[in-house]
Amino acid sequence: MRNKIVAGNWKMNKNSEQTEDLLNELIEKMPIDTEVKVIVAPTFVNLSSAVDHLQFTSIEVAAQNVHQSESGAFTGEISADMLKSVGVGIVILGHSERRAIFHETDALIASKVNTALEHDMTVIFCFGEELKDRQSKNHFNIVENQLRDGLFQIAAKDWNHIVLAYEPVWAIGTGETASPEQVQEMHEFIRETVRKAYGSDIAEDVSILYGGSVKPDNAKEIFSKPDVDGGLIGGAALKVDDFIAIVTAF
Length: 250
Ligand code: PGA
Description:
By secondary structure, the chain is an alpha/beta fold.
């Protein structure tokens, strides 16, 4: 069964106090009867308190990254075991900012995916083309390669721990959104690509989120497309009213 998911990627925003304030407002305003699975991803230092804060709610907490190794001399890094030990079972991997700014390659992302799965974590696997790829009509190839090189090493049994997040780089933080038709066209292609590699059951079951300037005024139309199962939200996740409006857009 596909889940409807709205995940907020807070990126490098909100200190400890601001995190608590945002979570309190979220708890207060979140409709309790929503069938949407809601996830928030604060920064590493605030994960533990976020888990505590949300323990009696249905809102789940994700990390924005994880290191591929178990432990050791990796100054500044965080392991899957550390995340699990504070109650975090979801991790966002392959985000375009990690790829572009921190030079994460498909191979590195693949090894992070493997490590997260070994720890029974759920992976929100992000991928998407740059503007130049779309302009040169190479976007389907790019997306297929990112899936093949970063994700398709996993075993079929691990797909119930995977959420896909298609995020065209040209739409992230730019205010420019892919049109609902462009999103549907790509999501259909992604599902077909999964189908070819792993079969229909897995392809039909996997949730595919769209990310890139999702806002209250465009969420409804994007989410109404048959292959769109939710959104990965950046900027609008930092404003509770906008984030809730996106959740309720389903
Ligand atoms: P945005 O970010 O909603 O601010 O475009 C999306 C993301 O980076 O996941």
